[in-house]
Amino acid sequence: MSKHITKEIPVSLHVKKYLEYTFGKQYTFSKNDFLGRIIFGVFQRGYRLREKVRLDTTYSIKLTEDNINRLGRHVKWEDCLSLDKGIDSVFRNQLHFLMNIHKKLGFESAKEAMLQGLYEIGITESDINFESLYRDYDRKKRYTKNKRSKPNSLKNRKPSSYDFFN
Q1: Cα–chain-centroid distance for residue 103?
Q2: What is the distance in angstroms between the CA of the first residue and the CA of the last residue of the chain?
Q3: Model pLDDT for residues 98-117, shown as the tens digit of each residue
Q4: For the chain, what is the domain count?
Q5: What residues are paired with 57 via a beta bridge?
Q6: Owning domain of residue 11
Q7: Looking at the record, which segments are called Disordered (predicted)?
Q8: Residue where one domain finishes, among candidates 56, 81, 106
């Protein structure tokens, strides 16, 4: 049986609550879920030293000795901000998906769905500003409708030999 090592990664408070809701108090590293892929992707590309930003709290990850050897022993886990940014991005995407589904099904407004989702996870206004989350959703919603290009559009496509047979 392999020995497990626990590492503490710095995260913001809302990210910690999201991770505890999704994985529990402690996460066991696996490359088969999104958090393991984010961790592996950050360290596989190479750790870039960024400006130091003080994050609110830490979340514990349980790794085997083999995982530590793959990820690299000389990584300063306490300085790694890329993990917090990646997990925050996944959190926001899932929240935006929930808001879109509720709005399309006609149950309630997107803002009410966001508040219900945050209440379910246990995230409060003191963890993250709800208005900034909603503004982020609104900005991304407008961007995807207006700025998205359609590369496979029929207008821009040249006729192919397949078109003559149908």
Answers
A1: 22
A2: 62
A3: 988 888 888 778 888 899 99
A4: 2
A5: 11
A6: 4-81
A7: 144-166
A8: 81
